[in-house]
Amino acid sequence: MEEETLKQYMNEYYRGFTGFELEHLEDFAKCLKEYKEFNLADYEIAHLDNDILFPPGDIKIGVRDARTTSKSNISKKILMDIAVFTMKMGGENVKRILETILLEKSCKDTATTKDATGENTTEKEIDRELISNFVKEYMFSFYKNFFEFEKQHVDDFVTAIKNKEQVNLVNYETEHLDEDLLIRRGRTPQGVRDKEKKMGVDVIKDNLMDIAAFTIKKGAAITTKILISLGYDHFENLQRKDAAVEELRKTKDELNSLLAKHKEDKEKIDDLEKEKKIADE
């Protein structure tokens, strides 16, 4: 996959988070400040499409630490809630990108030609089931890469809230993430954060947004690898695919030729039968 194409898709991924802080942060912050449980399942139902792999409120492949509950540590749970919500939102963006890639590929592979009767015929219909299975496979890969996210990261942000400070995102991303293709370390895409909010005024909101921003960037790193792997897979299979397509095209041409010959012979037979019938009369 060319770098410009990759950047285009990654911009699409980031655009899906536009308005995140303005639209969602206060809902999580309110519960954390009031020290009451956040109903993530209902929140996802209200704000996200149905996930094709996991039910609302969770990603059941070891992303959360099962020992954390609202009773044991509500701060940790709500921080993880916003992280999971961000992952699910990222999953929506990735799903949309994967569907776009496959639909574009299907459209390129689909050509309309004339059959033996002169009617338009489509060489290859878009296989919706194939698209669904393809998307599910890579969506699972996307979520799987968040394995043990809570154990590895959430305590750092919980500690920051307790100490009334912020995690240094530049250093934190440097330690835990590859360099982003588009966004500098510690920065978030345009439109994700609230430009009017002053940092340092509300440590709870700051840390909630920071863990969401880190989750967005981690999702971007995973998505980049998925898209690059798609490019390599396509390259490796290209020659085999082209050979198979050429063979199918030859077979189809032969079939069309036979159909045309059959039609011509049938017309001749029909004419002879008509002549014979006239002669008999």
In brief, what are we looking at here?
The chain is built from 8 helices and 2 strands, in the order H-H-H-H-E-E-H-H-H-H. Keywords: Coiled coil.
Q: What general outline do the C-alpha atoms trace?
A: elongated
Low-pLDDT runs of 5+ residues are 234-239
State the helical fraction: 55-70%
Strand content: under 5%
Major sheet details: 2 strands, antiparallel
Give the beta-strand count.
2
Helix/strand/pairing category: mainly alpha
Oligomer: single chain
- Strand arrangement across the biggest beta sheet: 1-2
Keywords: Coiled coil
Coiled coil: 238-275
Folded structure, characterized:
With 281 residues, the chain is mostly helical. It has one domain. The protein is built from eight helices and two strands, in the order H-H-H-H-E-E-H-H-H-H. The protein has a two-stranded antiparallel sheet with strand order 1-2. The longest helix is centred in the C-terminal third of the chain and has 78 residues, at 203-280. It is elongated, with a radius of gyration of 28 Å. The protein starts with a helix and ends with a helix. Keywords: Coiled coil. Residues 238-275 form a coiled coil.
Search tags:
single chain; about 280 residues; two-stranded antiparallel ribbon; 8 helices; coiled coil
Please outline the helices and strands.
Elements: H1 3-15, H2 20-34, H3 40-47, H4 74-109, E1 112-114, E2 120-122, H5 128-144, H6 149-162, H7 169-176, H8 203-280
Antiparallel strand pairs: 1-2
Helix pairs in contact: 1-4, 1-8, 2-4, 2-8, 4-5, 4-6, 4-8, 6-8
